[in-house]
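Here is one such protein, fold included:

. . .
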Amino acid sequence: MNRNSKLKRFYRYRSYKRKLEGGGNGNSDQSSNSNKQAKQERIHEDASIPSIAIGVVPYDYPSQLLDIEEARQIRSAVLKEMVAQRATNPIKPQFTRNAILRTGWMVFHCADEGTAKWIEELDYWGTVNCNAVRESDIPSGLSVVGSFPQSAEDTTEFILGMIEAQNDLPSSKWKLLNRNNGGDVAILTLEVDNFSWQKLEEKKFEITFKYGQLHFKPGGKRN
């Protein structure tokens, strides 16, 4: 077989292989573009960089959640406001990383307190009606249900304090959504913060409580 024949067979084989990998209709390029776009939306967050987190949430959060297009409008609106106020605003807004769309809301990582206050005071977010608040003030939308034995006569504050005393969880900051007592058992539905949710997931929602172990039932997850 001469050189030209070998080259023709090689190129035919390579073309055939590409069609198999891409489905023969350009799906490979479409999939590649989709993956690139997804990676751009999921900007890596480096927790080692000091910042002040400001959340931008819809007025009716968590009933109303932001989508990707609304997040882009908000990013654009913030940049436009920075330019529009450049001559009158003594603050020079700076951020440690890109604005991130979480489940239904956005977080801006401000480099300093001046930037954080500037974001909080903005009242223009494109076509979206939003509020800007400290991230710690945003309802997490995460809830758990626990049946606490020998606790019907205990106050909710005492129960949450007991959890915090025995576990690495800031339970004193959890919000009570509902409580029922059955016999000597207190059944509590609690809204927990994102940090606590992550810790509970690691422990498979099992904690130490009083003289035994207690298993939480995950009630809801928005973030």
Residues 200 and 206 are 7 Å apart (CA to CA). The first helix runs from residue 3 to 22. Helices lie at 3-22, 27-41, 68-84, 113-121, 156-166, 194-202.
